């Protein structure tokens, strides 16, 4: 999949680091700015498991960057599914194992984007799954491509998204620098902040596609 419009910003919407995800000990967050340039992308969203980076730490990573940006998000492990959330300012009342309905209500209040992550993850982990979910809430988008989503499953996810009127995005779910940018979402421009990025996702302004599939390294979510 390649962008069909003049997209000027490629963003990896799903990235873990060793700062907040124990399973990402090989990902040094301070290497992200240089790695973005090396792999030709313009932005990454740090989405630790059930942990939101402090705003001042995100600002530190953005110091001196031009034409690139690091954003803060979170991957929330609800009682039934994993969701990447972008646009939250704090984690008050958000915790691992919470009902997806409660998370959805919080994202509506704070105008944050809620993305269903790796809905067909065949890895043998707690979020491993071979069937498309029946959701009690409607997220803003679904992750159609990642390093734990097989290409053969993408058409199933696309059809499911179309049936449920849910936008499509992509993010690598990178736990190591080698996976950074291997699944990205193309946007018309680089969002100024997390709130603008959330609005762009909710308005369906992103186009997901894969890059460097032969190099991907599967890591459990």
From TrEMBL:
Lineage: superkingdom: Bacteria
Pfam families the record matches: PHP_C
Classification via InterPro entries: PHP_domain, Pol/histidinol_Pase-like
UniProt protein name: Histidinol-phosphatase
UniProt organism field: Desulfoluna limicola
